[in-house]
Design goal:
It is built from two helices and eight strands; from the N terminus they run αβαβββββββ. The strands form two sheets. The protein has a five-stranded mixed beta sheet, with no helix packed on it. Strands 2-3-6 form a three-stranded antiparallel beta sheet, with no helix packed on it. A hairpin with a 2-residue loop joins strand 2 and strand 3. The structure holds fe (ii) ion.
């Protein structure tokens, strides 16, 4: 019985942490949880790696191009790009294999204005986000 109660307490604590993280993420780039999300300006334990990992974003009309200048080898590569709003609405995503170039292009919905997050995930150096506004 005690083990079950401890399990429930732990589950509730984790649920609370997840909700707080979601709220913090929605507030902006300065609120990204350290050790979970890295940015060009907050590379954390991956300092020095930001050049290849922080997504580079190019806006061309309604098109958004995301590029990582990251080596793509069998053991170390960019796994995925995701384009999303701070509220968590996914606008596009692309999964890569090690032989791909880490590049993806998306078209925003007609009339879209606001903050967008470009995310890339390295299989070794974790999750990186570039925040921008269109
Ligand atoms: Fe990497």
């Amino acid at each position: 019985m005690s083990r079950r109660r401890d399990f429930l307490k732990g589950s509730m604590a984790l649920t609370g942490a997840a909700v707080l993280s979601g709220a913090a993420l929605a507030q902006g780039p300065s609120k990204f949880p350290a050790g979970l999300v890295y940015t060009k300006d907050a590379p954390g334990r991956w300092a020095g790696k930001e050049g290849a990992h922080a997504p580079k974003v190019t806006l061309e009309g309604p098109a958004i191009k995301i590029v990582n200048t990251h080596p793509m080898t069998e053991k170390h590569f960019i796994v995925k790009h995701t384009l999303l709003t701070p509220e968590g609405k996914v606008l596009g995503e692309k999964t890569f294999v090690s032989t791909d170039a880490a590049e993806s292009t998306y078209t925003l919905p007609d009339g879209f204005k606001g903050t967008v997050w470009a995310a890339s995930f390295c299989n070794i150096h974790d999750l990186w986000v570039t925040v921008f506004t269109v």
